[in-house]
């Protein structure tokens, strides 16, 4: 029973501390961002707002995403992220268009304005009750007592004397208890209000269902094509080698007595055929799931890819843990395809790969100093990678002006496992 009481006290104490944090954040972050949004929107007709809006809106998204995480971690209220995927042309005016045409952006704006008040009034209520109650318990009774004896120049408190001190003590205790016990339900109510503003609308949910239906169809088609490729490679490659190997061994068995030299020659050919078949099987397995991923993870896989290219590749990988094997495989093949395009089409002298996790997604940036002009709509390789990433709700953005450089940014939403010690 004591353990349960301690757990409840700990939860209540955390809720009060989080209440104070939310109240401070509403004034330190929400209010300035609301003012910046108003100024940026007012300056849009002058053109200045087009430059100011993207960083302000992205800052609002970051703050809203933090609230979504806190709502789930602190109160068990899950708020799905409703933003539309970043399109391939999301640079310059395209980025402004992407942000402003997303209904979730306008809901974020409304939340920013409302939360600058709501975060103080509702989220800050438990901490305000506790702080004000502590003042009534620890400070006001002494002031009343001293005032009743005429000690010191205090502000007018009335001639209540000790009864006034007792009243402050009782009232302060009630306020502290109310704020302490009411902290968790009040914070949950605050999270539910946030969900009503930051969660996806019904229209967005319907749109998301359509997107997932299309993605599933593309994934099924891609899986079927991959299966046909594996079957074809097995039939035309390794299977044919193994059939030839069996024939050579059978002929050698028949000739081992009559013509030993010919039998030895056939066995040598059989050994060579077995080596070729083994190599083809290894290549086929590597195309399904590279062994280097299982052995060394995505960092080692990307490093190994870079070492096979005929140009210098600067690789930077910063991952505090490992993603799920299917996600690692998709990321590996996406980077491999982009590097292959660099070698085949870019005419580049150097390339670079940057892989990191931003807290919600695996971000892979592949760039080169080549001739540029890469267009995802013209290449089957890039379209294939787009479909592979879409199966995991991932996105790809390509920036490749004529003359270069080419920068491909790919994101795969995922969580990382804890690093092994």
Could you please describe the fold and organization of this structure?
- It is an enzyme of class 2 (transferase).
- It holds the Pfam family HisKA_3.
- GO terms for molecular function: ATP binding; phosphorelay sensor kinase activity; protein dimerization activity.
- Residues 21-198 form the Putative sensor domain.
- The chain crosses the membrane at residues 33-60, 117-144, 164-182.
- The structure is a single chain.
- This protein has 421 residues and is an alpha+beta fold.
- It has three domains: 1-200, no CATH class; 206-288, Up-down Bundle (Single alpha-helices involved in coiled-coils or other helix-helix interfaces); 291-413, Histidine kinase-like ATPase, C-terminal domain (Heat Shock Protein 90), CATH 3.30.565.10.
- The protein contains twelve helices and five strands.
- The protein has helices at residues 2-42, 48-75, 93-100, 103-123, 125-138, 140-148, 161-198, 202-255, 260-288, 291-307, 325-346, 380-390; strands at 313-318, 351-357, 361-368, 395-399, 406-413.
- It has a five-stranded mixed sheet, with helices on one face.
- Helix 11 (325-346) links the parallel strand 1 and strand 2 (351-357).
- Helix 2 (48-75) crosses helix 7.
- The longest helix has 54 residues, at 202-255.
- The model is unreliable at 152-162 (pLDDT under 50).
């Amino acid at each position: 029973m004591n353990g349960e009481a301690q757990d409840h006290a700990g939860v209540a104490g955390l809720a009060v501390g989080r209440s104070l944090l939310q109240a401070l954040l509403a004034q330190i972050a929400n209010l300035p961002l609301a003012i910046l949004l108003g100024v940026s929107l007012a300056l849009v007709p002058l053109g200045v707002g087009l430059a100011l809006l993207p960083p302000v809106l992205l800052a609002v998204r970051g703050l809203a995403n933090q609230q979504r995480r806190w709502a789930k971690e602190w109160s068990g209220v899950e708020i799905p992220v409703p933003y539309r995927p970043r399109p391939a042309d999301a640079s310059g005016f395209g980025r402004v268009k992407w942000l402003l045409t997303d209904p979730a952006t306008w809901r974020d704006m409304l939340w920013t304005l409302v939360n600058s008040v709501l975060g103080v009034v509702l989220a800050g209520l438990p901490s305000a009750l506790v702080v004000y109650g502590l003042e009534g318990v620890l400070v006001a009774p002494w002031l009343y007592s001293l005032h009743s004896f005429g000690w010191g120049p205090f502000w007018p408190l009335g001639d209540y004397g000790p009864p006034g001190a007792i009243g402050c003590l009782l009232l302060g205790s009630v306020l502290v208890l109310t704020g302490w016990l009411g902290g968790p339900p009040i914070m949950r109510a605050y999270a539910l209000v946030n969900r009503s503003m930051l969660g996806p609308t019904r229209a967005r949910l319907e749109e998301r269902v359509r997107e997932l239906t299309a993605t599933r169809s593309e994934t099924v088609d891609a899986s079927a094509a991959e299966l046909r490729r594996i079957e074809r490679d097995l039939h035309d490659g390794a299977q044919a080698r193994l059939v030839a190997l069996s024939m050579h061994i059978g002929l050698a068995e028949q000739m081992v007595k009559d013509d030993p030299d010919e039998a030895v020659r056939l066995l040598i050919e059989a050994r060579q055929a077995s080596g070729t078949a083994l190599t083809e099987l290894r290549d086929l397995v590597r195309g399904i799931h590279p062994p280097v991923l299982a052995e060394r993870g995505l960092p080692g896989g990307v490093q190994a890819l870079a070492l096979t290219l005929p140009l210098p590749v600067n690789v930077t990988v910063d991952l505090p843990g490992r993603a799920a094997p299917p996600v690692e495989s998709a990321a590996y093949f996406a980077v491999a395809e982009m590097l292959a395009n660099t070698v085949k089409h870019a005419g580049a002298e150097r390339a670079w790969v940057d892989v990191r996790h931003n807290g919600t997604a695996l971000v892979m940036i592949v760039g080169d100093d080549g001739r540029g002009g890469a267009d995802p709509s013209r290449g089957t390789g890039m379209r294939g990678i787009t479909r592979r990433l879409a199966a995991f709700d991932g996105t790809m953005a390509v920036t490749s002006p004529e003359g270069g450089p080419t920068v491909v940014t790919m994101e795969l939403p995922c969580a990382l496992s804890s690093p092994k010690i």
